[in-house]
Amino acid sequence: MESIIEATGKNDLGLDHDGIHQLANEHGSSFYVLNVNKLRGNYRKIDTAFKSRYENFIIGYSYKTNYLPYLCKELSNLGAYAEVVSRLEYDLAIRIGEDPMRIIFNGPLKTMDDITYALNNKSIINIDSLYEIDFVKEFALSNPDIEVSIGLRVNFDISQNGVSALQEGYKLSRFGICVNNGNLKHALTELRTIKNIRIVGLHGHFSTKNRSLESYKIITQNLCMLAKENILDSLEYIDVGGGIYGELPESYNTNVPTFDDYAETICGILNKEFDGLEKKPLLILEPGVAMVANVFLFIAEVIESKKIRDEYFVLVDGSVHNVKPTMHKNNLPMRIVRKNPDIDTVKQSFNIVGYTCMEKDYLAFEIKDRLPMKDDYIIFENVGAYTIVFNPPFIKERPGIVAMNHTEFTTVRRKETIKQFFNEEIYIF
């Protein structure tokens, strides 16, 4: 496997070995760093790309990708709505001070209490399944003086030339209300039996395997067509979901669509389909990975480098769970910060492995570089998406998180202790 590591004494943190060691003394020998300025840059790039082509546009940040409270609050301050898929995430948005009217409540599992709470708060709510319609109807009948506005997540075919565009090649998406079997017509009919219910939006998030422009063209075109055919009189928004590519590291050498490419495709269709309307519908985009993947680093201290038969293994105070929770075998961009950078040694092939007892705990495979030594640090880049939310309480406590705002470092999640790991409010001793 070709190495994508870069050995250096300096790095994007602007810190040498001693600077990183000082942070490690405060936060533990492994920790995350959130680059706040890069986060702000990602938000502004996405916002500018779309708003310059379609003015009536908002970003709903996908909480499930990384719901670090500090990060969510920073994005809210920039203007992002909160896109949540559970009551837990909804309550987090409220906890950090988000206006309930700026919460977009999606997801396949909502209780009657969830829907009642969101509707009373006048949040944007997209119904995912037919069972939720009964809850909405019950609320509307119990509150005849309240205008109940909801959106529908719809499900339609986005295959291209007979080939599935979905992740893992799944033939059908399991989410949303199916258009093809008549369920959408049924849902519209049911909701329209209650006078104070208005269907104001359509949502069409699909997790695609290649995040292609063609997929977003099909999604946007179908949403516009369905909206014009079924809810044009009450239409307030078109929600195309998330899943777009963010900015990838240069070392990936991958030709993927840019924010401008996505905006040109999606906004171009909306401008054409709703040309002539006095007020075009709001366009909602729900980025997660594109917003946060490249704004986090994971720093882990080298504990030992050892040789087994003819292979070298570099043990770090970290785990594959910290950097690649899906355990894929692609090497992330990474850097070594060496305690003794001037020692001239030959390059070796080595694997970077973690502290767990699993044989498959590999953070990187077949790196070709100078062998890292004890007390060096390895910085793993592009670890902002799903690592924080998927990171299990497994064998060791969760590491701390530090926010870097220009040259200032602030603790935004403390390293876990045994009392927090085994929370006595839920564990029975």
TrEMBL record:
<protein>
    <submittedName>
        <fullName>Diaminopimelate decarboxylase</fullName>
    </submittedName>
</protein>
<keyword id="KW-0663">Pyridoxal phosphate</keyword>
<dbReference type="InterPro" id="IPR029066">
    <property type="entry name" value="PLP-binding_barrel"/>
</dbReference>
<feature type="domain" description="Orn/DAP/Arg decarboxylase 2 N-terminal">
    <location>
        <begin position="49"/>
        <end position="293"/>
    </location>
</feature>
<dbReference type="InterPro" id="IPR022644">
    <property type="entry name" value="De-COase2_N"/>
</dbReference>
<dbReference type="InterPro" id="IPR009006">
    <property type="entry name" value="Ala_racemase/Decarboxylase_C"/>
</dbReference>
<dbReference type="InterPro" id="IPR000183">
    <property type="entry name" value="Orn/DAP/Arg_de-COase"/>
</dbReference>
<dbReference type="Pfam" id="PF02784">
    <property type="entry name" value="Orn_Arg_deC_N"/>
</dbReference>
